[in-house]
Amino acid sequence: MARSFSEQERENIRNSILKVCKQNWTQYGYKKTSVNEMCRQVGISKGAFYLFFESKEVLFCEVLCLEQKKIYAAASEIMRKYRGKAGVAEALKLIYREYDRNNFLYNADSVDFTILMNKLSVEQKRNIEKSNDMSRKLFLKHPHLRLKVDEEVAVSVIYSLIMTIKNKEIFPDNHVEIYDFMVDHLIDDLYEE
């Protein structure tokens, strides 16, 4: 007979699965992260895993969306705390550092990510798209700033700037310092107070 979990145990196990998934996804990628290994790390059976998540894909979709929401909330808080261009610059720096810690956030064009996306339901894909749109809205609808450029140009510049993370190994110097320098200098060309 299967063991039942208390509400507290369920919450702790679910959070542990999410944490282990994020760590393994960052280290090994989607395809090489196995349900069996995550269950071993959490200390549950594979059957118990399916009490928490319908499938591996549902878990990965949730991890991605939760991580994007967490980053969005932190960036929003920075922009509330530091109004104006400085807030936008600090929020962009935070996002870059989070992407640096969690490579699954920016590897959307990898074969590994394509395999995941092909296994997701239409609803799960929509959830990921909604999570992606949060950042777009954050940087376009700022109450204390106006864009100096067209919205699509601004989005493209911000996206390109963040995606320099994909080339961090080829920079001859510290990629975080280079990114910060670019943000600090581009922010004046994107916004006016």
From TrEMBL:
Keywords: DNA-binding, Transcription, Transcription regulation. Residues 34-53 bind DNA. SUPFAM superfamilies: Homeodomain-like (SSF46689). InterPro entries: DNA-bd_HTH_TetR-type_CS, Homeodomain-like_sf, HTH_TetR. GO terms for molecular function: DNA binding. It comes from the Bacteria. It holds the Pfam family TetR_N. The keyword Transcription applies. Residues 11-71 form the HTH tetR-type domain. This is Transcriptional regulator, TetR family. It comes from Hespellia stercorisuis DSM 15480.
